[in-house]
Design brief:
This protein has about 325 residues and is mainly α. It contains 16 helices and no strands. α5 runs antiparallel to α7. About 35% of the residues are buried.
Length: about 325
C-alpha cells in the first residue's frame, strides 16, 4: 500500500469520527406536546416527591425555632401554660359544674389550633416561598401541604400534654375513643389542606385574603363546643341543634372530646348521652366525604390559577 493510499484512509477515518461526534452533539427532538416545567399531577405528584416534601417541612420547622435558645422546648412550655391556666380559671374559679371541664376545653383547643395554624400558614405559604416558586420546577401544591404537615408536627406537644393530663385523671384509651381522635384529626387535615390550597392561590392575586383568613379563624373559637358544652346548644335550640353540627370544626372538636375528655369522667356512658350527639361517627364520616369533595374542588381551582402565580409574584 502506497503512502498516498494510507494518507487517504487516515483522512477518511478522521472525517468519519468527526461526523460521529457532530451527530452526538446534535439535539434530539421528541415528538410530544409541550408541557410546563413543573409537574402537573397535583397532590399525587406532591406525595410522589416525598423527599422534597420532607425537606420543605424540616426547613419550616427549623426556621420557626432559629435563634431560639430553648428551641422545640417552647412547643411544650406554651401548651402546658395554657392547660394550667385553663384548669385553674375554668375548673377552680368559675366551676362550670362540668366534670374535668379544663380537659373538655383543652381537647378542643388542640384540634382548633391545628386547623387555624394549617389554614393561616397555608394561606401565606406560596407568598412566603416566592423565591422557590420562581426558581424550582415543583408542584406548587407542595407548599400548602408542607404547611399542613408542619402544623401537625407542632400539635404533637399539645397532644402529649393532653394524654399525660388525662392519664393522671384516670383516663385509659379505648378503641372507640382512638378511632374518634383519628377521625377528627383526618377531618381537620383534609379541610385545612383544601382551604390552604384555595386561599394560598387567591392570596397571590389579592393580599386581602390573608386578612379574611384572620377574621374567619377568630370565629372558630366561638363556633365550636369548646368553651361551652354541646349539651348547652342542644338544650337551647332543641331539634335545630342538628344544624350546628353542619360545622365540620364543631364535629372535629366533639370527636376529640369523645376520645379524651369523655374517658376522664366517672360515668362515661352518662357523659356520652348528655354531652354528645347520637350519630357522632356517622356525622363525622359524612363530613370527611364532603371534605374530600371540597379538596378536589380546591385542587382544580388551584390548577387553573397556578400558571399565573409566578408572574404575579
Amino acid at each position: 500500500m502506497s503512502d498516498t493510499e494510507r494518507a487517504e484512509r487516515r483522512r477518511d477515518r478522521r472525517e468519519s469520527r468527526r461526523q460521529e461526534r457532530v451527530k452526538q452533539r446534535e439535539p434530539r427532538f421528541v415528538d410530544a406536546p409541550l408541557a410546563p416545567p413543573s409537574a402537573n399531577s397535583g397532590l399525587l405528584e406532591v406525595f410522589r416527591r416525598r423527599y422534597l416534601l420532607s425537606l420543605l417541612v424540616r426547613r419550616e420547622i427549623s426556621a420557626r425555632y432559629q435563634g431560639s435558645f430553648l428551641g422545640l422546648f417552647w412547643s411544650y412550655i406554651q401548651p402546658a401554660t395554657r392547660l394550667a391556666m385553663y384548669y385553674f380559671v375554668i375548673s377552680v374559679i368559675l366551676d362550670k359544674g362540668i366534670e374535668n371541664f379544663a380537659i373538655h376545653l383543652f381537647a378542643g383547643l388542640v384540634i382548633v389550633h391545628y386547623f387555624t395554624e394549617t389554614f393561616g400558614a397555608g394561606t401565606h405559604s406560596i407568598v412566603r416561598n416566592k423565591a422557590l416558586v420562581r426558581k424550582m420546577a415543583v408542584p406548587r401544591e407542595m407548599f400548602p401541604v408542607a404547611s399542613m404537615l408542619t402544623s401537625a408536627y407542632h400539635v404533637i406537644p399539645g397532644m402529649v400534654l393532653l394524654v399525660c393530663f388525662c392519664v393522671g385523671l384516670g383516663w385509659r384509651p379505648d378503641p372507640v375513643g382512638v378511632a374518634a381522635v383519628l377521625l377528627g384529626f383526618t377531618l381537620v387535615a383534609i379541610w385545612g389542606t383544601g382551604l390552604a390550597l384555595l386561599f394560598s392561590a387567591a392570596n397571590v392575586f389579592f393580599r386581602d385574603f390573608s386578612n379574611v383568613v384572620q377574621t374567619l379563624t377568630q370565629f372558630t373559637t366561638f363556633s365550636v363546643p369548646m368553651i361551652y358544652p354541646y349539651s348547652m346548644v342542644s338544650e337551647r335550640f332543641g331539634e335545630y341543634a342538628q344544624f350546628y353540627l353542619f360545622n365540620p370544626m364543631a364535629e372535629a372538636v366533639l370527636l376529640f372530646q369523645r376520645g379524651f375528655w369523655a374517658g376522664t369522667t366517672k360515668d362515661v356512658d352518662a357523659t356520652l348521652v348528655e354531652h354528645f350527639p347520637k350519630d357522632l361517627f356517622l356525622i363525622g364520616f359524612a363530613h370527611v366525604a364532603v371534605a374530600l369533595v371540597f379538596l378536589v374542588f380546591a385542587q382544580r381551582a388551584f390548577t387553573r390559577l397556578e400558571n399565573k402565580i409566578p408572574e404575579r409574584l
